Amino acid sequence: MAYEVEKTDEQWRAELSPAEYEVLRRAGTEPAFRGEYTDTKTAGVYGCRACGAELFRSTEKFESHCGWPSFFDPKDSSAVELLEDRTHGMVRTEVRCARCGSHLGHVFEGEGYPTPTDQRYCINSISLRLEPEAG
């Protein structure tokens, strides 16, 4: 897949911390309940930590108590890419940044959360950077 932002593995390693690289470029997962944005209530836009693309708004963030930031909808449906993930003996839907292909987390459906979409975008904090609203 060709992305708008294409970099070599060496470039990604130079620009990202080892922990960021492990999650964003190798589809790792940060430990539950330890991420910077798990409980954040700050109004703003969450962007991709690797390329800066705007991905999620704070208005779509909700408390799922799953250990990672949860959103019920991306800022723009074309901002994320959804791929089947059959790793770890499960079938899940991986969420990637549509601009650079970085791993963000997974999306789950039908869990019964009281959200408009019945979806939970379970996203690693380390994959995101929050740009607080001005004012």
UniProtKB/TrEMBL annotation:
UniProt xrefs under PROSITE patterns: MSRB
Cofactor(s) listed in the protein's UniProt record: Zn(2+)
Domain (MsrB): residue spans on this chain: 9-133
GO terms of molecular function: metal ion binding; peptide-methionine (R)-S-oxide reductase activity
GO cellular component: cytoplasm
InterPro entries: Met_Sox_Rdtase_MsrB, Met_Sox_Rdtase_MsrB_dom, Mss4-like_sf
Protein EC: 1.8.4.12
The keyword 4Fe-4S is assigned to this record: no
Reaction(s) this enzyme catalyzes, per UniProt: L-methionyl-[protein] + [thioredoxin]-disulfide + H2O = L-methionyl-(R)-S-oxide-[protein] + [thioredoxin]-dithiol
Keywords: Metal-binding, Oxidoreductase, Zinc
SUPFAM superfamilies per the UniProt record, alphabetical: Mss4-like (SSF51316)
One GO biological process term: response to oxidative stress
UniProt entry tagged with the keyword Metal-binding: yes
Record Gene3D superfamilies: Peptide methionine sulfoxide reductase
Cross-referenced Pfam families: SelR
NCBIfam families attached to this UniProt entry: peptide-methionine (R)-S-oxide reductase MsrB
Name of the protein described by the UniProt record: peptide-methionine (R)-S-oxide reductase
Top-level taxonomy: Bacteria, Bacillati, Actinomycetota, Actinomycetes, Kitasatosporales
Gene behind this protein: msrB
